[in-house]
Amino acid sequence: MKEYDYSLDAIKGISCILMIMAHIPLYFNGNERVFQIVAGLAPVLFFAVSGVTTTLQARRRSFRSMLSFYALFAVIGFSYNLMWRPDIQAFKIMDVPQIIALGVLSVYLLEKYLKPPLYLYLLLSLIAYSVHGFIGHRLPDFPLKSVLFTETIGFTYFPWMFAFVAGIFAYRCSNRVNLILALCAGLLLAVVSYGGVHEADFVKYNMSVQYLLLSLVVLFGVFYLFRRKKSYASTNLILYFGKHSLLFLFTHLFLILAFDRLGLGRLYIVWMWGLALVCTYAAMRILLWLGRYIEHYMDHPVPWVLIVVGVVAVPLVTSNRDFIILAEAVLGILFSLNYKKLSSLMSASPSSRPLPATQDQA
Predict the structure, then answer these.
(1) What is the pTM of this model?
(2) For 99-105, what is the mean pLDDT?
(3) Cα–Cα dist 97/94, whole Å
(4) Three-state SS across the chain?
(5) Burial class of residue 98, CB neighbours in 10 A (0-12, 13-18, 19+)
């Protein structure tokens, strides 16, 4: 087992910063829109790191414990979906928590029972996209189609599984290969974009070839850059965000929605980015401090049952959008502060050994 790998936290930390840029609820033109499109690739890096950390968990966790934990991860994760879409329709859409659960369980099965050679992970990433690009839209409707395929909104198994397995390849291959693949993907992107670039080609939900290639440029390029760095300061802010990325996910979104509700969207975009980043950091520090006073209560199943019931019940008992967002944010933050407690409850043989990379999958 490798020693703790800070590069994975660093990659997630960069993804957190990109999320701030991507999630400001405004539409931009020109250079600002370019930044927003690139920042929208943050999930690619999150999913890639999740794939890597899953291969490390596969050596020490049973499938039963993984299935139990990630089933609850997906259900409690609907609190994040409901912050974006505060009504019961949110339960019909796969978002970051649900695709992480599916992706992690798939990688676990691959790594635990099939142990594919390295090149196959790269091939699987291309297959995952190909199923989306050439098969998904040709299929008639069936009950799980919205989980497996989509052309409008949400993160679905195809094509997003590509990021989980591509991340494993990027982590295990030589760093020179990462650089070569990033350059090759960039060259192909330039070729397929010759004659004009259309914004519709860079909408992530209906993933085009151009969006896939841009994703691969960023994925392999970021892994190349951060794997070159041999040491990180313990006080590094990027590492802090990466280590607590699940908490960041809920905190930054709640603050951005609150700022928008207060009318702060009229601020210049760079000021909005800075305000959201600084406030998220301050809020995370406060929440982590407060979390110490409640963590001992989370060693028992009852609080987790209440959280699950709360996530599902809130949009069923009220249609007040502000209340739903606030309640789901509280439940999501409570989950993000204590998810490791839930993981140990689900584990048949919990270990006190530190993971090589954080279990924080989001």
Answers:
(1) 0.92
(2) 97
(3) 8
(4) CCCCCHHHHHHHHHHHHHHHHHHCCCCCCHHHHHHHHHHCCHHHHHHHHHHHHHHHHCCCCCHHHHHHHHHHHHHHCHHHHHHHCCCHHHHHCCCHHHHHHHHHHHHHHHHHHHCCCHHHHHHHHHHHHHHHHHCHHHCCCCCCHHHHCCCCCCCCHHHHHHHHHHHHHHHHCCHHHHHHHHHHHHHHHHHHCCCCCCHHHHCCCCCCHHHHHHHHHHHHHHHHHHHHCCCCCCCCHHHHHHHCHHHHHHHHHHHHHHHHHCCHHHCCHHHHHHHHHHHHHHHHHHHHHHHCCCHHHHHCHHHHHHHHHHHHHHHHHCCCHHHHHHHHHHHHHHHHHHHHHHHHHHCCCCCCCCCCCCCCCC
(5) buried
Nearest to 242, CA basis, from 82, 14, 5, 2: 14
CA–CA gap between residue 236 and residue 14 (Å, rounded):
12
CA 316 to each of CA 88, 309, 313: distance values in angstroms, whole numbers, following the listed order: 7, 11, 5
Among 31-35, 100-104, 203-207, 290-294, the range scoring the smallest mean pLDDT is: 31-35
* Burial tier of 194 (Cβ tally within 10 Å: 0-12, 13-18, 19+): exposed
- Closest by Cα among 186, 215, 59 to 125: 215
Q: Show contacts of 290-295: CB within 8 Å, 24+ apart.
A: 291/337, 291/338, 294/334, 294/337, 294/338, 295/337, 295/338, 295/341
> Is residue 184 packed enough to be buried (19+ CB in 10 Å), middle (13-18) or exposed (0-12)?
middle
Helices 321-346 + 63-76 axis angle, to 10: 170
The letter for the amino acid at 238 is I
Q: Is 196 left (phi over 0), alpha (psi -120 to 50) or beta?
A: left
> Tokens in use for 57?
């968990």
Q: What is the mean pLDDT of residues 73-97?
A: 96
- Rounded Cα–Cα distance for residues 200 and 205 (Å): 11
Angstrom distance (rounded) from CA 36 to CA 229 = 26
> How many of the other CB atoms lie within 10 Å of CB of 109?
14
Euclidean distance between the first and the last CA atom of the chain, given in angstroms as a whole number:
22
